[in-house]
Amino acid sequence: MKLFKMSRRNIGQAGKILADSGYQGLMKIYPQAQTSRKSSKLKPLTIEDKVYNHALSKERSKVENIFAKVKTFKMISTTYRNHLNASDYE
Prior knowledge:
Blueprint: H1 2-7, E1 17-19, H2 26-29, E2 33-35, H3 47-71, H4 74-77
Parallel strand pairs: 1-2
């Protein structure tokens, strides 16, 4: 979260951010961010909140599955250690 705040990426009005409940403060920076709704002892979730959370988790699971597939490639998850020459790009 700290790196995300420091980057101050311009998502734009059309951009959409789907985050889990750990990113509750994200909506202060990006109003278009969508996080799951939390309950408390005094205020349990309504049916609408539960439906919203379920729909959000279905959308987030698609993205999380892609992240998992990307992480299976060790080349992407580690530093590239081979030397690149300008002639390699021609």
